[in-house]
Amino acid sequence: VHSAECCIFLWRYDDRVVVCDVDGTITRTDVIGFIGTIRGGTAVHDHTHPGVCSFMQDVHDRLGVKVLYLTSRPLRL
């Protein structure tokens, strides 16, 4: 039996949300991140597109939206 600790964030029904795919959109490739996850590695920051973190922060700050990130990578417990 495995367990994982998590948090639940409740948003209002009228909150504006931007949904962003991580694998191959924020990261340069989804394959390297997937293999790293399978091997038990951690996320490596140099696999992101240059400037993407500041861009997503600007999306949040300037537009006042919440950002929801999606990934198809497996969860390692």
Fraction of residues in H or I helices: 25-40%
Q: What general form does the structure show?
A: flat
Number of strands: 2
Strand order of the largest sheet: 1-2
Counting helices, strands and paired strands, the structural category is: alpha+beta
Strand content: 5-15%
Largest sheet entry: 2 strands, parallel
The termini sit apart by 10 Å
Please tell me how large the radius of gyration is: 15 Å
What's the average pLDDT? 75
Task: Give the helix tally.
Answer: 2
Low-pLDDT windows of residues: none
User: What is the succession of H and E elements?
Assistant: EHHE
Would you write up a description of this structure?
The chain is of the alpha+beta class and 77 residues long. The chain is 27% helix and 13% strand. It contains two helices and two strands. The longest helix is centred in the last third of the chain and has 12 residues, at 52-63.
SSE layout:
Blueprint: E1 17-21, H1 30-38, H2 52-63, E2 66-70
Summarize the structure.
This protein has 77 residues and is an alpha+beta fold.
Q: Keywords, please?
A:
alpha+beta; 2 helices; 27% helix; 13% strand
